[in-house]
Amino acid sequence: MTQNESAAPRLARVLFLCTGNTARSQMAQALLEHRAGERFEVMSAGLEPGQVNPLTVKALEELGLPTGHLAAKGVKPLIAEHFHYVITVCDRAEASCPIFPNARYRLSWPFEDPAAATGTDQERLQVFRRVRDEINLKILAWLKEGA
User: Fold this and answer.
1) Are 115 and 20 in contact (CB under 8 A)?
2) 66 catalytically annotated
3) Domain total for the chain?
4) Is 97 a catalytic site residue?
5) Residue range 14-73, pLDDT digits in tens
């Protein structure tokens, strides 16, 4: 690399954090990757990771979003990493969120837990769709604000 050349700019890093990393944080990751993946390196993690909820996958795939790369991950290995934004997407994660000493901004976007929905599979899927759409609107507004 010559003196006049510079390395490609580093993408802003975003971590979406939730309790289980099974629904809301996975949706937020997939939606931000879709909306602005060229601007952000996007990850998600959970305080107590479980398995990605099949209804999360279904709700995302209905929009044509890729889901094969989504997997529930724990937050502990990420605490020392550098992030531009750590965004909690549930009240419980916000209340129990560890300190990220290398994060520039910490935001709280609490959404209802679709995994707690009851009823038939179709009724539960409707809740997942609604939460997905709420997350999508929040991401669009955040991007419009100049994130």
Assistant:
1) yes
2) no
3) 1
4) yes
5) 999 999 999 999 999 999 999 999 999 999 999 999 999 999 999 999 999 999 999 999
Q: What is the DSSP string of 21-68?
A: SSSHHHHHHHHHHHHHTTTEEEEEEESS-----HHHHHHHHTTT---T
Tell me which residue range forms the domain holding 52.
12-144
Q: Which residue in 14, 15, 17, 18 is the catalytic one?
A: 18
62-118 pLDDT, tens digit each: 999 999 999 999 999 999 999 999 999 988 767 777 788 899 999 999 999 999 999
List the catalytic residue out of 90, 93, 103, 147: 90
- Whether residue 30 lies inside any domain: the answer is yes
CATH number at residue 117: 3.40.50.2300
